[in-house]
Amino acid sequence: MEARELEKYRKALEAKQAELVELLRRRDGIAIEKAADALDEVRLAADRELLIHTLDREYLRLKEIRAALARIEDGSYGICLSCEEPIPQKRLDAIPWAAYCVRCQEAIDAQRAAEPGATVLEEFLEETI
Ligand SMILES: [Zn+2]
């Protein structure tokens, strides 16, 4: 891939990364909000449950973005991690953090759906933002 193209994706990834970090910082504040009474506690628990799922997706996206930026550094960006074929630029334009070609991604998604794994949130919280 040309340096100019790589730079375009790097910029897109860094912008998205900054956006997510900001979003997650604000959300973290909500997640630890204290309830005024028991009823609020129940409602907040449900809200938190929903929030955890959203956060989990966002942390996962952030992780994917960081991995993509690392691949730009080591020169493997734009190559499918599974079959090692180039990922079409049209796909990278839509999803700059894509680590797999469509075919491999679909296979992975199907596998994940079959066996839901652990949340990445806990794992991620051990790292610093
Ligand atoms: Zn592939």
Short précis:
The protein is mostly helical and 129 residues long. The chain has helices at residues 3-31, 38-74, 89-94, 102-114, 120-125.
Question: Any overview of this molecule?
Answer:
The protein has 129 residues and is mostly helical. It has a single domain (3-128), classed as Four Helix Bundle (Hemerythrin (Met), subunit A) (Up-down Bundle), CATH 1.20.120. Helix content is 71%, strand content 0%. The chain is built from five helices and no strands. The chain has helices at 3-31, 38-74, 89-94, 102-114, 120-125. Helix 1 runs antiparallel to helix 2. It starts with a helix and ends with a helix. It binds zinc ion. Residues 80, 82-83, 85, 100-101, 103-104 line the site of zinc ion. Zinc ion (ZN) is lined by residues 80, 82-83, 85, 100-101, 103-104.
- For the termini, the CA-CA separation is 30 Å
User: What does the overall shape look like?
Assistant: elongated
Helical content (DSSP H or I, runs of 4+): over 70%
The main sheet comes to:
none
The total of beta strands comes to: 0
Low-confidence stretches: none
Order of helices and strands: HHHHH
Which molecules are bound in this entry? zinc ion
Give the DSSP E fraction (strand runs of 2 or more residues).
under 5%
The chain-level structural class is mainly alpha
Measured on Cα atoms, how large is the radius of gyration? 18 Å
CATH-defined superfamily: DksA, coiled-coil domain
Provide a count of the helices: 5
Question: If classified by CATH, what would the architecture be?
Answer: Up-down Bundle
Q: How many distinct folded domains?
A: 1
Overall pLDDT confidence: 85
CATH class term = Mainly Alpha
